[in-house]
Amino acid sequence: MCDPLRRFLVHGTSQDIRAVLVEPIPFYCTKLRNLYADYPNITVLNVACGAVCGRAPLYFIEPSVADQMNGDGPPNDWAHGQGSFDANLVKYWIERNRFRGDDYVRNMDNYIDSIISIDVEIIRLSDIEMSSQNDNLLLNIDVQGFELDVIRGIDWSRPPAYIVVEDYLNEASPIDNYLSARGYFYLCGRIDKVFVQA
């Protein structure tokens, strides 16, 4: 859904690209695995990534309810992308989407009540087999407020060349500082911020 990399992963020369996709919610992990079933160069892992290994509850909108949350638009199925380790962040985005119309606003309490959670396994990025040739290694992170935790799990003896971080709330300054201290510089982007290894 709204994946900026999909067109590269499914392009005719995509067999030259290896990708690991991480999706902790089983419902969406199954969808991803089905979507890329014909691409042996793409691995889909049913885990979350963080700074340390363990387990934690992940909060998200029940998918059948998320199907009903476009309201008056845009029809982008946005509610399916609202998983977070912080239930309040999921609630925040439900409330922030009140622009979707009167029916949406009338149903907001039902939408908030539809937030559910499952315990998910958390691994570090350093636990995922990545290419030892890092000239073109790209890490793309969209984890609803826990981007820095994911970054802290990088194997810093083999850091990625590029890191893209979604930052809808303009809160990336700790990430900027953390990456700057490790030799990265901010290249471009307002919401999807691109950092490049110097």
Keywords:
alpha/beta; single chain; three-stranded mixed beta sheet; four-stranded mixed beta sheet; 198 residues
**Chain-averaged pLDDT:** 91
Report the portion of residues in β strands: 15-25%
Count the E strands: 9
Order of secondary-structure elements = HEHEEEHHHHEEHEHEE
Morphology? globular
Number of helices: 8
List unreliable stretches of 5+ residues.
none
Rg over C-alpha atoms, rounded to the nearest angstrom: 17 Å
* End-to-end distance: 31 Å
Q: Sheet bearing the most strands, described? A: 4 strands, mixed
Helix content: 25-40%
Classify the secondary structure makeup into a structural class. alpha/beta
* Lateral strand order in the biggest sheet: 6-7-9-8
What report would you give on this structure?
The structure is a single chain. The protein is of the alpha/beta class and 198 residues long. Among the domains are: 56-120, no CATH class; 130-198. 27% of the residues lie in helices and 24% in strands. It contains eight helices and nine strands. The protein has helices at residues 6-9, 26-35, 63-66, 87-96, 102-106, 108-113, 147-152, 173-180, and strands spanning 19-22, 42-45, 48-49, 54-61, 115-123, 138-141, 162-166, 184-188, 192-197. Helix 7 (147-152) links the parallel strand 6 and strand 7 (162-166). The radius of gyration is 17 Å and the shape is globular. The model has no long low-confidence stretch (mean pLDDT 91).
